[in-house]
């Protein structure tokens, strides 16, 4: 079945790239990435660029957005909105977003907490249905809770959200990366996964039942998985980079991001699973101090486009399976 | 001034090595480490070994401990007690402990929560005065909270404990590793170090004041430091392995241990700072599944002995400075 977003030109998927906040490195890493030979071999990038910036040459397809006198945060939002509209209209097969500043964006769009939450709203998807996955050469990991204060993490964990996050990570590994029987480790939330209940009870009460539900859901989908957990997060990531797990499900932000950024510096890609379209981004922020210094590294942006193109070309990707996944979890 | 624990033989410091729980890999990695040529070039190891195990040959000095019919947890405690007594009596200059099982040890010694806390009690040091530092070739990091449930972390953070932990990490880098002006990053406890208060308030209320106190204390000691924080933990560790910080202060266990174990697999050493004697251990647990398979890796144990020997030979180490450090923090 043809799906919105699958339109291609010259056999290559079109990938919409929003240039991000121009006070940071977004526009320069976007530009370097859409000119990268590896990107041009994999897709047709379309760059959504601010009217207020010089129009780049040798950048392929460029869509100029917004008003020339818009500030950097407003201009970044104009690019983002136009690029999302293109993906939702099927004019591009995937969306890649260069970084915006949460603080500056919230100043022009009150309530803005980040691309992930904003995109969920735009796609009418519940925030708890989208999952942040970091997919890189050495580490592939998702986190159950995301942008919440640490004090809210233990109370925010639910059996359903843990199982759903694990299922999306499993699906990414299986359908999008082609791993037949993904081996997953599910982290505990407490040190040493609570050491048998000495250091907390979430492992026993919430995480262990979620591991059972996840195993059952994968089985209902006809899939196979070698699933361990809850296990200590530090051991899980070490075993992962040593090749004993294909992916790790973290319970909170820093478990996942410390691992991804350390193991795959400048090569980790942030993938938003659970949306009806493909969306990736680099694993860094606006890095204002590096803007226009010539020292910004465009590799994570390049990898984000390459992964988006790969997933866009995958006709059995997660975005086509969301109803099946929900049904499998319900049992 | 000659200090207890500084006695030497043949010019090399004596290092007491407790063999750990024999249901795990402790005895075999201890034995492999005390036979390692690099270890023998750096110190005189003394192996504290269970009466119930075959006495090893070609292992240098061996002290046999406990009763032959003691179970593995009791036997490990017998070795631990004898080796600590030796260090406290000045018969050895440092202590290195192979892993014990928290669960099995607590079964024979109710209330046991780990070597670190047990050693603090044995040395009559307040638990909040000892700090767990991971010191490896790529990552050097300490954590302010340690073996507590994640839900207790935000409420356990105090300005004093953060500043004290940072000061011990600074002292380790400066006096024991010889870094003239250690550059430190102090992590936030929340994702993105709370993004300016959007994701929590501990950064503003507790961590930022502690960074000020830490800066003042280092200055009072006549030292220098390039101190940043609170900063996002994931960025801090990435900058650290890229060489832009000499050490990172984490707020909780998994921030530090995920980074240390990923960046320095089998080479990270756990150093207990704040004790009146030198104590290190490998960064792994008993790993029962690897015991007697021939697959246990003794490198972290070897590195633990090498670091203990190095610090024991350092006459200006942290253990000699604790009073000065406390005074510097009081102001």
Strand content of chain A: 15-25%
Most extensive protein-chain contact, per-chain counts: A-B, 44 and 44 residues
Structural class of chain A: alpha/beta
Q: Give the strand tally of chain A.
A: 12
Cα(first) to Cα(last) distance of chain A is: 26 Å
Order of helices and strands of chain A: EEHHEEHEHHEEHHEHEHEHEEHH
What do the pLDDT scores of chain A average to?
Answer: 93
Q: Which ranges of chain A are low-confidence, i.e. pLDDT below 50, for 5 or more consecutive residues?
A: 1-8
Helix fraction bin of chain A: 25-40%
Write the layout of secondary structure elements.
The structure is a homodimer of 331-residue chains.
Chain A: E1 8-9, E2 12-18, H1 26-34, H2 37-42, E3 44-50, E4 61-65, H3 72-88, E5 94-97, H4 102-108, H5 115-122, E6 131-135, E7 140-143, H6 153-156, H7 159-176, E8 183-187, H8 202-220, E9 226-231, H9 233-241, E10 247-250, H10 253-263, E11 269-273, E12 278-282, H11 299-312, H12 322-330
Parallel strand pairs in A: 2-3, 2-5, 3-4, 5-12, 7-10, 8-9, 8-10
Antiparallel strand pairs in A: 1-2, 6-7, 6-11, 11-12
Helix pairs in contact in A: 1-11, 3-4, 7-8, 8-12
Describe the structure.
2 copies of one chain form a homodimer. Helix content of chain A is 40%, strand content 18%. The first copy, chain A, is α/β, with parallel strands linked by helices. In chain A, strands 1, 2, 3, 4, 5, 6, 7, 8, 9, 10, 11 and 12 form a 12-stranded mixed β-sheet that branches. In chain A, helix 1 (26-34) packs across helix 11 (299-312) and helix 8 crosses helix 12. Chain A binds chain B through residues 102-103, 106, 113, 146-151, 153-155, 189-192, 194-196, 198-202, 233-235, 237-238, 241-242, 252-255, 257-263, 265, and chain B through 102-103, 106, 113, 146-151, 153-155, 189-192, 194-196, 198-202, 233-235, 237-238, 241-242, 252-255, 257-263, 265.
């Amino acid at each position: 079945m043809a799906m919105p977003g699958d339109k291609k030109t010259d056999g290559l998927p079109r990938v919409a790239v929003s240039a991000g906040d121009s006070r940071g490195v977004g526009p320069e890493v976007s530009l370097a990435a859409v000119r990268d030979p590896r990107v041009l071999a994999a897709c047709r990038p379309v760059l959504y660029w601010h009217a207020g910036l010089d129009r780049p040459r040798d950048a392929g397809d460029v869509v100029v957005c917004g008003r020339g006198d818009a500030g950097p945060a407003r201009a970044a939002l104009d690019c983002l909105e136009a690029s999302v509209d293109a993906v939702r209209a099927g004019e591009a097969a995937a969306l890649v977003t260069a970084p915006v500043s949460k603080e500056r964006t919230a100043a022009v769009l009150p309530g803005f907490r980040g691309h992930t939450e904003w995109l969920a709203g735009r796609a009418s998807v519940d925030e708890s249905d989208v999952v942040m996955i970091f997919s890189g050469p050495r580490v592939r990991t998702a986190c159950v809770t995301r942008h919440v204060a640490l004090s809210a993490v233990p109370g925010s964990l639910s059996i359903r959200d843990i199982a759903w996050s694990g299922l999306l990570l499993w699906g990414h590994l299986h359908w999008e990366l082609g791993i037949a029987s993904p081996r997953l480790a599910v982290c505990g939330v407490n040190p040493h996964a609570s050491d048998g209940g000495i250091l907390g009870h979430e492992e026993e009460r919430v995480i262990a039942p979620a591991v059972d539900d996840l195993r059952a859901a994968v089985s209902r989908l006809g899939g196979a998985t070698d699933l361990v957990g809850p296990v200590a997060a530090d051991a899980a990531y070490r075993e992962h980079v040593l090749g004993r797990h294909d992916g790790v499900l973290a319970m909170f932000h820093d478990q996942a991001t410390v691992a991804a950024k350390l193991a795959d510096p400048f090569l980790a890609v942030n993938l938003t699973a659970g949306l009806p379209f493909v969306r990736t981004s680099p694993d860094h922020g606006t890095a204002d101090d590096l803007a226009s210094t010539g020292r910004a590294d465009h590799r994570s942006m390049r990898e984000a486009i390459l992964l988006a193109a790969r997933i866009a070309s995958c006709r059995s990707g997660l975005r086509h399976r969301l109803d099946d996944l929900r049904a499998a979890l319900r049992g």
